Amino acid sequence: MATLSLDQEVIASHKDSGSKSLTSLDKPDTVILAMRKLREAIVATSRRDIFAKSVYFFIIRITILLGHSESYHPALQYLVHHIHPITPLGDDEREEFIGYLILDLACRQNDLAVAFHLRQLYDQRSKSIDNVLSALVHGNWSLFWEAKDAASAYQRRLMSWTDARMTEHALNCLGKSYMSVHEAYLKQCIGLSWEELCERKKLTWERDGEKIVIRQMKKR
Q1: CA distance readout (Å), 23 to 16, 20, 153
Q2: CA 41, 42, 45, 46 torsion: positive or negative?
Q3: Of 32, 176, 185, 212, whose CB has the highest number of CB atoms within 10 Å?
């Protein structure tokens, strides 16, 4: 119960953090090192029981929020491919943790083929995961941001690995297709406000009231 309580406290304090790392921990490097030693101890003793499963749940959730793929990815692999066959995950646990592995493959590693293979292998039928995969396959930035808004903090953190790629794709499409767009529509497309976009990108676009001018009409 202590593990679940700590999980709940962490997620409650970071539920509005979006794609930000869990930097409010006093010493994240110390936490990561402790998690790694605990994970290595379980692997060394070949434990695949309920205790090992619970420990891996905790390690995966915390290190996902920390954005530390070197910790959560091998932990997910071991949980799904080694612990699960011996101590099966419940239905909700399967959906959660196999979903994390699929999101990591699709968003961080950009390996959609393996992500779809894993989805088929474990008969993963999650509308939220399917929406993310569909958005990535078709470059549907609107669906991607909608799926992210509806996702859990853990899922949002995993999806954030592809934020820049999706934003860049949306900007390229807008730049080729429109002369100008409404500011609210721009934010819907790229997941950033105009001010945030200007901080991150050097654009020739200009703001005119609530309208963003992408290209000026050429004078004849």
Answers
A1: 14, 8, 14
A2: negative
A3: 212
Q: What is the DSSP string of 134-159?
A: HHHHHT-HHHHHHHHHHS-HHHHHHH
Transcribe 80-100 into DSSP letters.
IIIIHHHSPPPHHHHHHHHHH
The pTM assigned to this predicted structure is 0.80
CA gap 99, 94 in Å, rounded: 8
List per-block mean pLDDT (blocks of 10 residues) for the chain, which spans 220 residues.
44 44 59 88 92 95 94 95 95 95 97 95 91 95 93 96 92 88 88 86 86 79
Residues 6+ apart with CB under 8 A from 140: 134
